[in-house]
Amino acid sequence: MQKKTGSTSMNDSGIEIGLYTFGDLFPHPQTHRAISPQQRLQEILAAAKLADEAGIDVFGIGEHHRLDFAVSATPVVLAAIAQATQRIRLTSATTVLSSSDPVRVFEDFATLDLLSNGRAEIIAGRGAFVESFPLFGYNLEDYDDLFNEKIKLLLQLNDNDRITWNGNLRTPLRDAEIAPRPMQQSLPIWTGVGGTPESAARAGMLGTGMALAILGGDPARFKPLVDIYRSAGAQAGHNPEELRVAVSGHGYISNSSQQARDEFYPYYANYLEYSMRKRGRRYTLSRTDFDQMASPDSGLFIGSPQEIIEKILYQHELFGHKRFIAQIDIGGLPYSKVAEAIELLATEVAPAVRRATSKI
To answer: Which is an annotated GO molecular function term of this record (predicted)?
Structure first.
């Protein structure tokens, strides 16, 4: 059995800035029409190319298995992006590992790594949406056990060319060849964490990165999760430099705070209202509530470039995180607005944040 080890620690050039998308196909708030999956995928490809050219560090693709989302085959979309980009890192956001086969996941992302010349990463999670469980023949009663077993197997696959393994929820592996091997010494693997201490502790114990979703409210309430993660990692003997934290959240940037809120409110309200409706609940987001959610002390990244810079740096004081990734293309927001926000993120926000957090 050949084991490959290697550091996935980041350099000292400051926080990495990234984008992610779930490729939602929610109807436009005014026309009540949704664009086609084909158009949505083309827009995702265009956004990734623009982000790469503008100097954004990371681009992530989420996974859903519903007709109101365009992306179910994340590695396929990332492979297309790999051929259209040069330097931007490519990650899932997230891979629903509980309802996936870890061997197939590793093979897919190792192949992506080869095609992209070493730019592939995985954010693995249990899944906030559960439609994939019955779709692929998994029992929701095994929700947590599935993830526990599969994340440990995925990490072993990342380290070994051949593996012998036994588990409770998957057939055994007997001296199995794990191919292809990635171009990187090992694939960077992160654990997606919502709000539970148990998930944070597990990520630390395993020594993966922790991708923390902060979708609103006071960011300080997530500080205990980061502390739990780092404490668990230290107790498990992992190098503190490799216990990396990423923060993800919803956001939108325009020339001024007022403009950003005026432009984004209809789409964000549409996003929340449609999401609740799909869950059988009625919900209306008032402009007053939205403005409160977007206030300077909240975790929602909506505002001018300077306001976004200040929010990222405030959270960096709290968490010491290495990466920030934003989801800006939600609720039917036109691609023209997405492109403008990407340009502002790349040209005004990212350089200022990197300078402020650089150790060089």
So the answer is: monooxygenase activity
